[in-house]
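Q: Got a minute? One more chain.
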Amino acid sequence: MNGTHGGGYAVSAEFYDLLQAETDRRLAERRFGPAAARARRAVLDVGAGTGIVTEVLLHTSGVPVHAVEPAPAMRAALASRLAHLGADQRARVTVHPETLEAAGLTEIADLAVASNVIACLDPATRRTTWKAIAAALVPGGLLLFDPPPDHLPDRPEPAIRLGPVRVGPDHYSADVTRHPHRGVLQAVFVYRVERDGEVLREEQETFNLWPAPAERLTEELASAGLHLVRAPSTGLMAARRPAA
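A: Always. Here it is, folded:
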């Protein structure tokens, strides 16, 4: 999942690209690439994380890209990815090392994307983020995002395995479990590095996810000045700032 706040991701940043980059890139190309190709002003990447989506936006558009990433660990990976791009693409990206609200961006983009971000925001922060996105979009600008779970499950969800991915003699993997806990859905990532069948390292990081039904999201978006529209891809929601 992509970065949203200044804390956290200290463990996950090491493993994120190894285990998730290729899947996330293919998904971003399908979900955001066509809209980015139509952007004429700029594109806003909310919670850029390690920069997978940022790179796709730069490849598929010809406009400036604003990458918002407050988490230092993820921003370090983002900077490393940008270092391997061409000078012309690096010249089009601006990295904002704070939350979107703190960045105070006003009418700078005609497209905003929030990939794997909204579920990580508590309700108060989510509502503030909608307002910050609306302010950053020009009139008529479009927001694309993957919504949070619409409800809290009654029991733990089946575990998911990421990897393994081989690096020299070592195999990197993660087991991801999600379970309800005190009104939130906790996603627990247990990372392992193994060599010759033995575990060299095992580290864990937990993220809270806040479910919200579509009706609530629609109301929050409307309160922020964004109106729900038909999404261009399965698994996404879309909202637009009304044209002036």
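A: The mean pLDDT is 95.
Q: Perfect, thanks.
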